[in-house]
Write a structure and sequence with these properties.
Length: 397
């Protein structure tokens, strides 16, 4: 049997391939350079242009750009009226911001378990966790696959809850013919460099609700307005503005917006390439006993942000960490998405205990994220597949 690089053998890949990476071309560079040579670095026209493009992409009536995806989640919770004593249901298999956004508002995150095959939050578990204090659901499109939006919307309507779709992973995904971003009461995006499109950092909230839209605009800009229709006093002159609420500085710069606008020109081919790579991985790993691939619901035409291996350790004579280390040694850049949020010391100090979500906890013990991004060549993809097969063969019982 071929020796693994972990034990002194030759790596399968000649260079390290990261699990995720941005793709920047000359058009992106020129778009940013034009802003740098212009009059506005922030609070200029590119933010509005990009917001209009996002509305066209998703079908939502309003888009509000923010400084990052966490700011978008925080702003969405503020717009939804979440406050002290409220409860917000979300998944534990997510980045911490999906739950932290409730804490920022004085609310309590409540963790609902995932479906064992889709790895997305379970509608039945959402319903099981609803109490008189529940105000909203933050449903995360994990890896890019849309959650069961129809079922979750029905649950939210029946219980008068606000549905916030955390679509940090899923821009470009289409659910039952509708683009993600134009379906939930509020939808948040992230434009971190490993996402499908990037602004360097950045986020957005999409909504059709006029009241939410006003709150979002105010919250991202200190609660300050120059809109005379919103003011409480007559303007004293052209310089006049009012702070009518308490907000934060969550604005996106024109530099970031220009990069994002240029990236959105390429979202079609970015999405198609990600689908191609995910399909090739599914084909390669779908019949391996050592691996279970994520099951997709038929309603979700998914643009995959992450590709995860669910490693069936019963077939291996080692543990997940050793498999992870072996893949890294073969030059396959790996990660794990995600540690259940309530495992973290901060949440443990708040009183959360292990055992809340058995499906999520069992999944976490077996997950390894492997490379998936637009700039991967076919040779890169095949090299990752060979490396995974090599490692699984070596540790097979």
């Amino acid at each position: 049997m071929e020796k693994l690089a972990l034990f002194g053998g030759k790596p399968e890949l000649g260079k390290k391939i990261s699990y995720g990476r941005q793709y920047i071309d000359e058009a992106d560079i020129q778009a940013v350079a034009e802003v740098l040579k212009g009059d506005f670095l922030t609070c200029g026209p590119k933010v509005g242009e990009t917001e209009s493009r996002l509305c066209g992409l998703t079908g939502a009536r309003h888009a509000v750009l923010l400084s990052n995806g966490t700011a978008a989640l925080h702003a969405a919770c503020i717009a939804a009226g979440i406050g002290e004593g409220d409860e917000v249901i979300t998944t534990p298999i997510t980045f911490a911001a999906s739950a932290n956004c409730a804490l920022y508002c004085g609310a309590k995150p409540v963790f609902a378990d995932i479906g064992p095959e889709t790895w997305n939050i379970s509608p039945k578990e959402i319903e099981r966790n609803i109490t008189p204090r529940t105000k909203a659901v933050v449903a995360v499109d994990f890896t890019g696959q849309a959650v069961k939006l129809k079922e979750i919307r029905e649950i939210c309507r029946a219980h008068s809850l606000v549905l916030i779709e955390d679509a940090a992973h899923s821009i470009g995904t289409v659910y039952s013919g509708q683009p993600v971003g134009g379906i939930a009461d509020l939808t948040t995006f992230s434009f971190h460099p490993v996402k499908t499109v990037t602004a360097g950092e950045g986020g957005a909230v999409m909504t059709d609700n006029e009241e939410y839209y006003k709150k979002l605009l105010l919250f991202r800009a200190h609660g300050i307005t120059r809109n005379q229709e919103w003011m409480e006093r007559a303007p004293e002159g052209g310089w006049y503005y009012e702070q009518i609420d308490l907000g934060l500085n969550y604005r996106m710069t024109d530099i970031q917006a220009a990069l994002l606008l240029s990236q959105l020109d390429k979202i079609g081919r970015f999405a198609e390439r990600r689908r191609e790579i995910a399909a090739r991985y599914d084909q390669a790993f779908g019949e391996m006993e050592e691996i279970t691939v994520q099951k997709e619901i038929p309603e979700s035409d998914t643009v995959r942000h992450l590709y995860l291996l669910n490693v069936n350790l019963d077939f291996l004579k080692t543990d997940r960490k050793t498999v992870y280390d072996a893949l890294e040694a073969e030059n396959v850049g790996c990660n794990v998405h995600y540690i259940p949020v309530y495992y973290f010391p901060h949440y443990q100090r708040l009183g959360y205990k292990k055992g809340l979500c058995p499906n999520a906890e069992a999944l976490y013990e077996r997950l390894i994220t492997i490379p998936l991004y637009y700039g991967m060549s076919d040779e890169d993809v095949e090299g990752v597949i060979r490396a995974v097969r090599k490692v699984m063969r070596y540790f097979r019982k």
